[in-house]
Design a protein that fits this description.
The complex is a heterodimer of chains A (96) and B (492).
Chain A: H1 2-23, H2 27-49, H3 57-93
Chain B: H1 2-18, H2 22-45, E1 54-57, E2 68-71, H3 73-96, H4 100-122, H5 126-144, H6 150-181, H7 186-192, H8 197-214, H9 223-229, H10 232-257, H11 264-287, H12 291-307, H13 309-314, H14 321-355, H15 366-369, H16 371-385, H17 391-405, H18 410-433, H19 451-466, H20 471-485
Helix pairs in contact in B: 1-2, 1-4, 2-3, 3-4, 3-10, 3-14, 3-19, 4-5, 4-10, 5-6, 5-10, 6-8, 6-9, 8-10, 9-10, 9-12, 10-12, 10-14, 11-12, 11-18, 12-14, 12-18, 14-16, 14-17, 14-19, 14-20, 16-18, 16-19, 17-18
Classes of the chains: A mainly alpha (96), B mainly alpha (492).
Chain lengths: 96, 492
Amino acid sequence: MQELMYSAGGVALFGVGLYGLIVAGHIIRKLIAVNISGIGVFMFLLATASHVELTDPVPHAMVLTGIVVAVAGTALCLWLVLQIHAVDVASKELPK
Amino acid sequence: MSVLIVGLPLLAAIVCMLVRKKLWLSVTSVSSSLLLVLMVGSLLLNVDPAVSPAVYPMSGWGAPLGIELSVDGLSLIMLFVTSLVVLLLSVYSTYYFNVSEQHIRFWPLWWFLIAGLNVAFIARDAFNIYVALEMIGLAAVALVAVAKKRAALVAALRYAMVGLVGSLCYLLGIALLYRLYGTLDLSMLANLAEPSLSTSVALCLISLGLLLKTALFPFHFWLPPAHASAPAPVSAALSALVVKASFYLLLRFWLEVLAPSVSAGAANVVGVLGACAIIWGSLCAYRATRLKLVVAYSTVAQLGYLFLVFPIALAGDPELGFRSGAVAAVAYFVIAHALAKSAMFLAAGNILASTGNDDIRQFSGFASRQPIAVFTIAIAGISLIGLPPSGGFIAKWLLLTAAVESQQWWWLVVMLVGGLLTALYLFRILGIAFEQNQPLAKGSNFLVLPKPMVFCGLALALLAIAGGFNAEWVIQLIDQDMSSLHGMGVAS
């Protein structure tokens, strides 16, 4: 029962994240929405781990890898946002 | 050997991160890509139909516990095309980047991208495929942004978001599969999976993720800006290889791993979306004013053809001949498009690099100033339109035949209209290029490009034509795959 609740929660978080990604206007908000989706997926995986009698280590390994990827992806996106900002600031300072 | 196919690009990436001299970066990369071609070539020559697919358990641990790699005909074709395109693009890239900072950033990412592609082609583990997708996605995004132009940065950001969402959908899908069947190994999944609502949901999620990454209409919105604003060799690799990797995985899941769960309705939906992609992509390509944007929209259109394989191959009994015919056709499409499209992007990149802009309306009389670039576009265009003798012609012919054999003539109409539209947007470019009336505008000076840059594009275009003469070989490889898939032994 508890496991089912966590699974449903994970899927719900995934949906909330997707919705946020589509409706959010600001790029940082979109990025946070993607991260929420990711956490939803990880939650679902964790619930899967307790699906069997003994706790299954494979989903844990998958979540760990997933977290690493999510951190790397978020960092890359934030770097891109900073670069775009830097280009915009530089182009404003130049006399037209 | 198959471990080396992944190991070599990873090693090259690490070496490229350590050496920071342009010369050494170039030497490492060109020699590694040459080695990769030789390795895949030797695998291809020594392919043994009796042990296809050849399975390699990593460090001796077999399927349920360890991770396996496997090489069959289709993955060999993908690997070979990838290594061939990578070799020519690597040579091109050593001349393309003229700022040493860009060289330092480009090469490690380039090799990570190739490592990711190779993993995707030979992985037998669903989670391994997720890691490969992320490697490809992150490296591709960073490569688009390598030149730090504003348009490229914005396109890269959008591409990154779509990529992340796509892989999350895929991850949720395989999480569901793992919960249902307790395994991630593709062969075991293929044996265990039964059609059920949960399996269909998992298949939907996996397909949605992969379709986002393959940019099937209407998910193509991120592709044209990203492919058009990236540096030329990156655009070429993205259009030729990266979108094909996710398509290849989709093909594996639909025709092999979860084949019993795929309904005819789903196949038709994807086929119709493919048809929309052909028409819409071609129309957008016709209306685009920048050369690289035309080529990028042309990728959207050409990707549409690939998806016609699903309704054609999944109609009727899997043991009928036209299924393997349809898969052979799609493999041929992948080969022909990879070669022709990378040639076209390199030619467009050369024009952009030598004149500083790629606005089509200023192309008047271009054929006399950059004859080889225009010639490359024309030759690659022959294959894209599907005129004989070219790889594109064989691909279209095989797909047409399979469509007729499966009694679905309406896909024929789509293919023929698509071919005409392709001719329309390509002849528009060539027509302007061959105009004679305009004298050279004053002050417009042309940068003379190094010879290898010019000839890499031409070589790829000529390979696309040469692809028209090797049909037997591809068909045979695919036939072996399909017959081993359906347990019929090796068909003679």
